[in-house]
Write a structure and sequence with these properties.
The complex is a heterodimer.
Chain A: H1 7-16, E1 30-35, H2 44-52, E2 63-71, E3 74-82, H3 91-94, E4 101-103, E5 109-111, H4 121-125, E6 132-133, H5 156-163, E7 192-193, H6 199-202, H7 209-213, E8 219-223, H8 230-237, E9 253-256
Parallel strand pairs in A: 1-9
Antiparallel strand pairs in A: 1-8, 2-3, 4-5, 6-7
Chain B: H1 31-39, H2 59-62, E1 64-69, E2 78-83, E3 90-95, H3 108-111, H4 113-117, E4 127-129, E5 142-144, H5 147-163, E6 170-174, H6 182-192, E7 197-198, H7 206-216, E8 223-224, E9 231-235, H8 246-259, E10 261-265, H9 271-275, E11 278-280, H10 287-300, H11 306-309, E12 310-312, E13 330-332, E14 336-337, H12 339-347, H13 352-359, H14 363-376, E15 380-384, H15 394-407, E16 417-418, H16 437-448, H17 480-486, E17 494-498, H18 502-505, H19 510-518, E18 521-526, E19 538-541, E20 551-557, E21 560-566, H20 577-583, H21 592-606, H22 611-617, H23 628-631, H24 637-655, H25 657-660, H26 675-681, E22 683-685, E23 709-710, H27 714-718, H28 741-748, H29 753-759, E24 791-797, H30 810-814, E25 828-831, H31 833-839, E26 846-850, E27 855-862, E28 870-875, E29 887-889, E30 893-894, E31 907-908, E32 913-914, E33 921-926
Parallel strand pairs in B: 6-7, 6-17, 9-10, 9-15, 10-11, 14-23, 17-18, 18-19, 24-28, 25-27
Antiparallel strand pairs in B: 1-2, 2-3, 4-5, 4-19, 8-16, 12-13, 20-21, 21-22, 24-33, 25-28, 26-27, 26-33, 29-30, 31-32
Helix pairs in contact in B: 5-21, 6-21, 7-15, 10-13, 10-14, 10-15, 13-14, 17-19, 20-24, 21-22, 21-24
Classes of the chains: A alpha+beta, B alpha/beta.
Chain lengths: 275, 927
């Protein structure tokens, strides 16, 4: 049998070698480049993220902007995957009165729920709508003890008991966020939260879940300060775009090529990293 | 912008500025937790867990990736499931790294599987209906019963039919399956004695198989060589979203756009169309006009592949618009048959300008796409989806679309359209020795009674269903409802339905509600409650295919055929039936295709009919030689359950024995030392498809009547097994003995082919302007006149659909806008804003859509990706009994509306396929 050395394998090798420091005293600049031509808009990133991070319905760290332009038959549809941009100049952190948001390892904008007072300044300051407030105890739908068919189907609480998941969590609870001191596994009411590039995974040498989950190799992740990284390779090939560049936040999430990769001219000659 | 609901509103004051509670306020399992839960304490209030209870490693690093298979669509990807070492729970899934079809890449549908496995609304144990009245609005009043009781009731009913010699009144319906399917779907009905095994295939895509069948003798799906191709035309196919092997095609698509051009013929802006070079927004139902015009362009411009098609003897291209060609001037290649006849009978006047009038697609665009496709040939793909051919006259469109591959020589060729390399799996032990006289009589019942060969009336004059070219060879799934209601060819008294939801998934599904209401004893085997289960007398809870059972499926793409194993991954030792029963599944669930058959077999043996049991005893473990009863010989029900599980495992081992047993011959591909090595890998890969090996010029043969690729279909005329000499002049008077095909079907009904075609709503005739035996265009057959129903309805499948089984998964609703134009948590019907303005409909208005078949009420979405004059709607919502998320109120009210309440029960009768597309006319009004 053939062992595949995929783009993911190569990026994972890079991540395993990173020397991250929790206080941000490292020389690592983590960036994600999203290759829109490779993206098929399938949402695997979003579902992987929701499961990895035990997100309840209504909260998506990995999300999307979809836009339709033009008039039939000249009409385009674009899907832009979104997530926290881990801005170099992060307005969420600079406006946080308790320093709950701060620059952590690899330049990731981290959040300390112990310091957070839920004041929502960060939400107002973030131009990308990427900070999420937990307005209620998590996963209320899993508190339900009603069955749709009495004794024939389960109830959410019964199912959780059956599989040994306790607390405010879904039955498909992922324990990965218990690892390390960064995260609360399911979170709680009254604080905000955001994407951390899956720092609990990075610290154990694994790629962010959205990167690994993407079946299209559309997410390229790594250290901008490593000249040989895959992320530098693609940034060397294409001049990237960022969302709302005019905000001056210097996002670490960048976009290359067009979602509408086809054109009326034959092939643009812009190969992806998988080529 | 989508109105997706993850927008954060910082001005919302709900619960603002709540205190940051203890960050370790989350509680793990344990005695303290159970007490706290019992007391109703809020977990957030105190720290019940010490930090050292937390993990220091990711599940990825301590758990195990175990192999199984995803059947969330017909891609059937080989899978790996991460099982947590501490809790035994499945944590996540991915593509199987050993698969050469897709590697670790899967698609978004597989990622949703754990929401099905851990769905609170799964059936957890058998139930019995207590309310004798049946109906959509009638609560079945189910009560829990034991497996023993349930199986006894089923055995009693079977014995009653056998004692009355009325076994033909039994029926089995299947939906999704694994390749252990012969046991329940074929062998069980044969031994019991009923001809009525009805599959879902005709609501899947049988018309899609008819195109290649009647051109190159393959009743099957294709694989497309996307890594080597230079041009792709997708016809109603959306390969990065639905259709087959989405994992592989999604992974390759970005690169494909660099390497090749992509054109999409589709009435709505699909996922693939949104990324393509060209979108040809065809008027629904008129795809065939474009296909004929493209063939016309390719021939008049001299762009066909000479090696595959042939050439004019003197080199002068006589394919000139409006002119007939003398066949004697054309030197046909030995690879194909009948291009000149195709030209003379269909193509010579089918100009792009003509096609523009018919289809609404600009002539210039048709011409450009045809030209560039042919110039890229033979590395060019004409990719047929269900859209153009699951229409009343769809078989001929399917042939026209597929014939383009013949014109450019991409058939079986590099960068073209391929089939699957040899499979090599073993046949399962059969039922013939165990079929007694009572059974034989039951099986033969339709020969003497009523209409057609089975309860779906296949093979009747109106329903040729020419699978493989044989009259009545294929299923007409949806017509079984009419068979049941009409009691023709027989009355149905016992139905066993499994892994399907016919009362939701068939067009004009209302008819199935009536049919199911009529059946006195109905057993259904499902993971979830469903609209079908609502009418059942016995509900048996099924194992989830990806996590809890044995089975086998297969994938085809990237030039490879893979054999993929399903296994009960939650058990540490899946080979050990005790471990599987104790740890391998979530609730008291069993496997439809194997364990349940086995339990019924023992129960029937207790009643003196042991044929099914003796059949099951053939399933010896190929490694130990032990039959199920030799492995466990006890008398308790638990022992029976263990035997049933051993039977299940043995069936999987027997079926895949050529893959893993070095002493059994297999086609070229992966080699394994034994069962355990294969089981752990979970996938066997064939060698790569050998390009052009079926071309006669390379010493091969197509499975057609002429042995060649047929532009003039002798195979449709007389079937693939009748040899027709391709060098004979085409002469329809030329008689063959005992033909199959259309002539065979006509002979069976003592009539002629033209009568068959007229009866079946086709315009083609054996001497007509539209010719019965060449690929051609027929205008759509509208279901509803355009005065009352002025819009065409464009149905297509949800990207997160998981074959209709994921409507109770929240992620489907949360991310529903991955279907271009859709909205999260809503079931919208999409209208072009110009049409909406005329109707006074605004975004978000509630509207009623009605057709001659029925009506639904849904939310309007104004979207430019919809062709004016059409209404586009994603299929999959409208459930009222599939769980709390899928329904607005379980058992009471549907969420959104089901497209199948609008789509009438009609057929592409040559293939038996149900109609979903092209012909469905609707009206729209604001509520």
């Amino acid at each position: 049998m053939t062992e595949h050395h995929s783009l993911d394998d190569e990026m994972r090798t890079e991540v395993e070698q990173l020397q991250l420091d929790e206080n941000g005293d490292d020389d690592v600049d983590l960036n994600m480049v999203i290759d829109l031509q490779s993206c098929t808009g399938c949402g695997a990133c979003n579902i992987g993220c929701a499961q990895e991070n035990n997100l309840q319905e209504g909260v998506a760290f990995s999300s999307r902007i979809v836009e339709t332009d033009g008039q039939f038959p000249n009409v385009s549809y674009e899907y832009t995957p979104t997530l926290c941009n881990q801005c170099e100049d992060a307005p969420c952190a600079s406006g946080c009165p308790t320093s709950a948001l701060y620059e952590g390892e690899g330049g990731i904008t981290m959040h300390d729920p112990d310091q957070c007072i839920g004041c929502k300044y960060c939400m107002i300051n973030c131009p990308y709508d990427e900070i999420h407030l937990h307005k209620e105890d998590p996963h209320p739908r899993w508190d339900d003890d009603e069955a749709v068919i009495d004794e024939g189907t389960a109830t959410p609480t019964e199912l959780k008991a059956e599989v040994g998941v306790d607390g405010d969590a879904p039955a498909y609870y992922n324990p990965n966020r218990e690892v390390g001191e960064h995260e609360h596994p399911t979170r709680f009411k009254g604080v905000v939260e955001k994407c951390t590039f899956c720092v609990h995974r990075l610290n154990k040498g694994e790629l962010p879940r959205c990167v690994e989950e993407c079946p299209c190799d559309a997410r390229i992740f790594g250290d901008r300060n490593d000249p040989d990284s895959k992320v530098n390779e693609i940034l060397g090939r294409y001049n990237p775009d960022v969302l709302k560049e005019e905000e001056g936040t210097e996002p670490k999430v960048k976009y290359v090529r067009d979602y509408n990769g086809g054109s009326y001219e034959r092939g643009k000659g812009e190969p992806a990293l998988g080529d | 912008m989508s109105k997706n609901d993850t927008t954060n509103d910082p001005t919302d004051t709900t619960d603002s500025a709540g205190l940051a509670l203890d960050r370790r306020g989350f509680m793990k399992t344990g005695a303290a937790g159970a007490v706290a839960a019992g007391l109703g304490l809020s977990f957030g209030l105190s720290s019940l867990v010490e930090a050292d209870d937390y993990r220091d490693a990711l599940v990825e690093h301590t758990g195990e990736w175990r192999a199984s298979t995803c059947a969330g669509c017909t891609s059937w990807c080989a899978a790996q499931i991460l099982v947590d070492d501490e809790t035994g729970r499945a944590i996540r899934t991915r593509g199987n790294e050993h698969s050469q079809v897709h590697g670790r890449n899967d698609c978004v549908r597989q990622d949703m599987a754990i929401q099905q496995l851990y769905d609170p609304d799964r059936l957890k144990q058998p139930m019995r209906r207590t309310n004798p009245e049946k109906g959509k609005d009638v609560d079945p009043e189910f009560e829990p019963i034991s497996w023993e009781e349930a199986i006894e009731e089923i055995a009693d009913k079977i014995m009653e039919l056998r004692e009355n010699e009325e076994t033909h009144k039994a029926m089995v319906t299947r939906g999704r399956y694994t390749y252990l399917r012969p046991i329940l779907y074929s062998h069980f009905p044969q031994i019991i004695g009923t001809p009525n095994n009805i599959s879902h295939s005709a609501i899947c895509a049988e018309a899609e198989k008819a195109g290649p069948m009647f051109t190159e003798g393959e009743w099957s799906y294709r694989q497309y060589d996307v890594t080597e191709t230079r041009y792709v035309i997708c016809w109603g196919a959306d390969p990065i979203s639905t259709n087959r092997q989405v994992s592989h095609y999604s992974h390759e698509f970005g690169d494909l756009l660099d390497r090749a051009e992509v054109a999409v013929v589709e009435p709505r802006l699909s996922s693939t169309a949104s990324k393509a070079d060209e979108w040809l927004p065809v008027e629904p139902g008129y795809d065939g006009a474009i296909a004929s015009a493209m063939a016309h362009v390719i021939l008049t411009e001299g762009l066909w592949n000479e090696e595959f098609v042939g050439e004019f003897e003197d080199g002068d291209n006589r394919f000139v618009e409006g002119e007939e060609v003398d066949p004697d001037t054309f030197d046909e290649s030995e690879n194909s048959h009948g291009v000149v006849q195709w030209w003379n009978l269909e193509l010579n006047d089918k100009t792009p300008e003509w096609a523009e009038e018919e289809s609404g697609v600009p002539a210039e665009q048709i011409e450009r796409v045809a030209r560039r496709f042919a110039q890229a040939g033979p590395n060019a793909i004409s990719w047929l989806g269900g859209g153009p051919c699951m229409q009343i006259r769809g078989t001929y469109t399917a042939m026209a679309v597929h014939a383009l591959n013949g014109l450019v020589g991409s058939v079986g060729n590099e960068g073209g359209t391929l089939y699957a390399p040899d499979d090599g799996t073993a046949s399962l032990p059969g039922p013939d020795e165990f079929t007694d006289e009572i059974a034989e009589e039951g099986l033969a019942y339709p020969e003497e009674h009523g209409t057609g060969d089975k309860i779906d009336q296949r093979g009747s004059l109106e329903l040729p269903a020419l699978k493989g070219g044989e009259s009545g060879g294929g299923v007409v799934t949806n017509n079984a409802a009419d068979g049941i209601l009409e009691e023709d060819p027989m009355e149905i008294e016992l139905l066993i339905s499994y892994w399907n939801n016919y009362a939701f998934s068939n067009p004009e599904s209302q008819r199935w509600e009536d049919a199911l209401e009529k059946i006195p004893f109905h057993v259904t085997i499902e993971t979830h409650p469903s609209e079908t289960a609502w009418f059942a007398d016995i509900l048996l809870p099924a194992t989830h295919h990806q996590f809890e059972r044995w089975g086998q499926l297969r994938s085809t793409a990237n030039g490879i055929r893979s054999i993929n194993l399903h296994q009960p991954v939650l058990a540490d030792d899946p080979d050990d039936p005790e471990d599987v029963l104790d740890n391998g599944r979530l609730w008291d669930v069993k496997t439809d295709e194997t364990e349940i058959v086995y339990l019924i077999a023992e129960e029937l043996a207790d009643r003196g009919f042991d044929n099914l049991f003796e059949y099951c005893e053939q399933y010896e473990d190929p490694e130990t030689g032990l039959a199920p009863s030799e492995e466990y010989d006890g008398g308790s029900f638990r022992d029976r359950e263990l035997r049933a599980q051993a039977f299940s495992r043995n069936a999987a081992k027997l079926r895949t024995q050529p893959m893993w047993d070095p002493d059994v011959e297999a086609p070229p591909g992966d080699e394994f030392d034994g069962w355990e090595e294969f089981r752990e890998a979970g996938v066997w890969n064939s060698d790569h498809w050998e390009y052009r090996h079926r071309w006669p010029s390379e010493g091969g043969e197509f499975d057609t009547a002429t042995g060649r690729f047929e532009f003039f279909s002798e195979t449709l005329r007389v079937g693939p097994d009748t040899d027709v000499d391709p060098d004979d002049d085409i002469d329809l008077e030329f008689d063959v003995d005992d033909p199959d095909g259309l002539e065979g079907h006509a002979e069976r009904h003592d009539t002629d082919v033209d009568d068959v075609l007229e009866t079946c709503n086709y315009l083609a005739r054996t001497d007509g302007e539209r010719h019965a035996y060449v690929p051609h265009y027929e205008e759509p057959y509208d279901m509803g006149d355009d005065g009352d129903y002025p819009f065409k309805f464009v149905d297509y499948k949800d990207r997160l659909n998981r074959e209709g089984r994921s409507a109770n998964a929240t992620w489907l609703h949360e991310f529903k806008d991955v279907n271009p134009g859709d909205e999260p948590w809503e079931d919208v019907a999409k209208l072009n804003p110009r049409d909406a303005a005329e109707l006074g409909i605004e975004d978000g208005d509630e509207i009623r859509i009605s057709s001659p078949a029925g009506e639904i009420e849904v939310t309007a979405k104004l979207w430019e990706g919809v062709k004016p004059g059409t209404v586009a709607k994603t299929w999959g919502q409208g459930h009222w009994a599939y769980g709390r998320v899928a329904s607005e109120e379980f058992g009471e009210e549907e969420h959104g509306g089901s497209n199948n309440r609008l789509i009438g029960a009609e057929y592409d009768r040559l293939s038996g396929s149900s109609v979903f597309y092209g012909d469905v006319c609707v009206d729209v009004e604001k509520l």
